[in-house]
């Protein structure tokens, strides 16, 4: 399996967020100085330099004289000679529902990662790689049954855009339900989560506008901003102080022409998918009001997964969702479906119904996909007459805290907030990403590795995604093997004092 949601870096900026960044003590920590680790380190650094020489001296991009190179030769070198050697750890085919467990199709390579052949065997693993936060990725049950019924009624697709013949009653129902769930006036839904950002931002900002974007924002946001023509300024990750400095300068100096900005928009994520950090929402709302800026928040990883009622970061902080001008989210994670939404005022949504490229040109959401969202959302809201949704939300929160605390106790370095179900474990070296994934797979544990170019070259990590579907026994099994390989592979980088106290796993009728 692979990390489908990668972060594009505009430039390197040191992070200052309290939740994501390691402590001062851990900042001093470097990978172990064993001979093998030093060799890996020197190999990667040497590979970078050789790649540069290769790009500048031995090969040509084939571009016309006077033009900038069309592609980066180092990345080409890296993919060919480094990534290829561990390519078996990514893009792994599955042949089951990606629930608490997942079945991988076994494959081998005889040419060092250039090609793969299936062996005809399968391996069932505990699944810590899918965004199945609330455990709705199920082959049976109410969601599956109602989706099948909708498929029989409406077919697979409308084969048209929403503005033409692609709008069905089920789409209108989902939009009303989404607005009700989030506590805002209106909502509009789209068939693809990535396009929800990249194709709607150009409808909201344009030339003469300034966007202040968190440095860890997702690639879909960055692409949408580039398409918009707006000026983009990056602020340090989750650093409210730096954001305020940027706002002050923007208002004082304005555009390079001397004119004021048409509008200033702050763009953040609820939960950052590569860092596991949670946005400092209350402080950012204060800044937005103080400097009369707009706030756009991507809740792809927080809707359903955060807050007492599963309504995202606003619910988590007990903030009125109407304080955020543009709420964006996806249905691919907590709702185990596909697509995305934008929610806010009726005026905002009416504007997008006319000017959004994702609404005007893209095919509408598939009916059974739409039904999966409706059914799971009703369960979360308790409209199905059960407390199943509430139990799932509590189970996810319980699993998240337990797993994170146990990892910290083991001595590995993790990024992010204690309540974030996205848990990055730092392994630093790219070779260690491959070693961890391969070793865990032999122990029937499936997870995701994240390395360059999604992260800086020497900041590789293993990203665990927790789910309400996981049991304590499954988590304990995973933690047992993580502790074992942390000793073998030298992953215990943390210098924080380890608390020997037993980490409790609270049941439904217990509280912390």
From TrEMBL:
InterPro entries: Aminotrans_II_pyridoxalP_BS (IPR001917), Aminotransferase_I/II_large (IPR004839), AON_synthase_class-II (IPR050087), PyrdxlP-dep_Trfase (IPR015424), PyrdxlP-dep_Trfase_major (IPR015421), PyrdxlP-dep_Trfase_small (IPR015422). It catalyses: L-serine + hexadecanoyl-CoA + H(+) = 3-oxosphinganine + CO2 + CoA. PROSITE patterns: AA_TRANSFER_CLASS_2. Its EC number is 2.3.1.50. GO terms for biological process: ceramide biosynthetic process; sphingosine biosynthetic process. Residues 13-38 are annotated as: Disordered. Residues 124-481 form the Aminotransferase class I/classII large domain. GO terms for cellular component: membrane; serine palmitoyltransferase complex. CDD domains: KBL_like. Keywords: Acyltransferase, Pyridoxal phosphate, Transferase. GO terms for molecular function: pyridoxal phosphate binding; serine C-palmitoyltransferase activity. Its cofactor is pyridoxal 5'-phosphate. Belongs to the class-II pyridoxal-phosphate-dependent aminotransferase family. This is serine C-palmitoyltransferase. It comes from Lasius niger.
């Amino acid at each position: 399996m692979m990390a489908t949601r990668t972060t594009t870096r505009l430039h390197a900026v040191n992070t200052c967020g309290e939740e994501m960044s390691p402590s001062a003590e851990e900042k001093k920590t470097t990978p172990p100085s064993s001979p093998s680790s030093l060799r890996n380190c020197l190999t990667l650094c040497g590979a970078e330099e050789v790649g540069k020489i290769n790009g500048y001296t031995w090969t040509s991009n084939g571009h016309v004289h006077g033009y900038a190179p069309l592609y980066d030769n180092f990345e080409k070198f890296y993919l060919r000679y480094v990534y290829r050697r561990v390519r078996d750890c990514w893009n792994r085919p599955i042949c089951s529902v990606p629930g608490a467990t997942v079945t991988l199709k076994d494959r081998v390579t005889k040419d060092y990662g250039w090609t793969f052949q299936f062996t005809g065997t399968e391996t069932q693993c505990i699944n810590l790689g899918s965004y199945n936060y609330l455990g709705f990725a199920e082959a049976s049950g109410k969601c599956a049954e109602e989706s099948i019924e909708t498929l029989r009624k409406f077919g697979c697709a409308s084969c048209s855009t929403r503005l033409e013949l692609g709008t069905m009653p089920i789409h209108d129902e989902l939009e009303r339900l989404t607005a009700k769930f989030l506590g805002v006036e209106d909502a509009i839904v789209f068939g693809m989560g990535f396009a929800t950002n990249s194709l709607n931002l150009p409808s909201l900002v344009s030339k003469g506008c300034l966007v202040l974007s968190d440095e860890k924002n997702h690639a879909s946001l960055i692409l949408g901003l580039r398409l918009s023509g707006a000026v983009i300024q990056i602020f340090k990750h989750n650093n409210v102080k730096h954001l305020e400095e940027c706002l002050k300068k923007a208002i004082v100096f304005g555009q390079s022409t001397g004119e004021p900005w048409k509008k200033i928009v702050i763009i953040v994520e609820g939960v950052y998918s590569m860092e596991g950090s949670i946005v400092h929402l209350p402080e950012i709302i204060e800044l937005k009001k103080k400097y009369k800026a707009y706030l756009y928040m991507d809740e792809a990883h927080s809707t359903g997964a955060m807050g007492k009622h599963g309504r995202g970061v606003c619910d988590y902080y007990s903030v009125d969702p109407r304080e955020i001008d543009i709420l964006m989210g996806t249905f691919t994670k907590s709702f185990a479906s596909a697509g995305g939404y934008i929610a806010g005022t009726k005026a905002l949504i009416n504007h997008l119904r006319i000017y959004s490229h994702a609404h005007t040109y893209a095919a509408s959401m598939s009916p059974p996909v739409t039904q999966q969202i409706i059914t799971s959302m009703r369960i979360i809201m308790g409209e199905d007459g059960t407390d199943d949704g509430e139990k799932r939300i509590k189970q996810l929160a319980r699993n998240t805290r337990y797993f994170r605390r146990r990892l910290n106790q083991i001595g590995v370095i993790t990024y992010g907030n204690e309540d974030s179900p996205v848990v990055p474990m730092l392994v630093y070296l790219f070779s260690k990403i491959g070693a961890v994934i391969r070793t865990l797979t032999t122990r029937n544990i499936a997870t995701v590795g994240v390395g360059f170019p999604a992260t800086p070259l020497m900041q590789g990590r293993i990203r665990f995604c927790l789910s309400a579907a996981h049991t304590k026994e499954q988590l304990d099994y995973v933690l047992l093997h993580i502790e074992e390989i942390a000793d073998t592979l030298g992953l215990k980088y943390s210098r924080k004092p380890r608390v020997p106290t037993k980490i409790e796993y609270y049941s439904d009728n217990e509280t912390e």
